[in-house]
């Protein structure tokens, strides 16, 4: 996991800057979220370590969604509310650090147990894909363009 974080560290400044210039922030958010969904699909089918290692650069591309979303929110927030926005983002990040491990370990535990309707060790990744799908629907329905930076 540290290796993936290291790759993402280099993706943020290099790739994110390219995509935000080429696509604008909203489309970069959507692209990053779609890459994340595809990455989770890949992770559900991984059967060997080398496949996982080979997919890390692609998986790291999904990390561009977060800074693009932060930039988009910052652009649509008044100057006198930037501190509140940063506080909100810090709070959401905190929730995102403790809630997903609980959800993912519980879904994994359930779907590998004898009581599960099907044996599905990739359940946490499917759950992640579903949550990202909901996130995309919410993002698209927000419909708040900033400087013609509309998701569509």
Largest sheet geometry: none
Low-confidence segments, given as residue ranges, are none
What's the overall geometry? globular
Helix content: over 70%
Rg (CA only): 17 Å
- Helix count? 6
Number of strands: 0
How far apart are the first and last residues' alpha carbons, in Å? 33 Å
Query: Kindly state the mean pLDDT as a whole number?
Result: 84
What does this 3D model show about the protein?
The protein is an all-alpha fold and 152 residues long. It contains six helices and no strands. α2 runs antiparallel to α4 and α5 (82-112) packs antiparallel against α6. It starts with a helix and ends in a 10-residue tail after the last helix.
Outline:
By secondary structure, the protein is mostly helical. The protein has helices at 2-23, 25-45, 49-61, 65-75, 82-112, 123-142.
Q: What layout of secondary structure does this protein have?
A:
Blueprint: H1 2-23, H2 25-45, H3 49-61, H4 65-75, H5 82-112, H6 123-142
Helix pairs in contact: 1-2, 1-3, 2-3, 2-4, 2-6, 5-6
């Amino acid at each position: 996991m540290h290796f993936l974080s290291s790759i993402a560290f280099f993706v943020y400044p290099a790739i994110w800057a390219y995509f935000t210039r080429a696509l604008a922030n909203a489309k970069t958010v959507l692209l990053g979220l779609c890459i994340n969904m595809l990455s989770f699909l890949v992770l559900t089918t991984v059967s060997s370590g080398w496949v996982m290692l080979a997919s890390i650069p692609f998986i790291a591309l999904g990390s561009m969604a977060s800074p693009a979303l932060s930039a988009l929110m910052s652009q649509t927030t008044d100057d006198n509310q930037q501190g509140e926005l940063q506080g909100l983002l810090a709070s959401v990040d905190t929730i995102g650090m403790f809630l997903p491990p609980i959800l993912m370990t519980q879904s994994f535990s359930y779907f590998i147990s004898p009581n599960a309707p099907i044996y599905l060790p990739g359940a946490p990744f499917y759950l992640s894909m579903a949550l990202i799908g909901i996130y995309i629907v919410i993002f698209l329905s927000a419909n708040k363009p900033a400087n013609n930076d509309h998701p569509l």
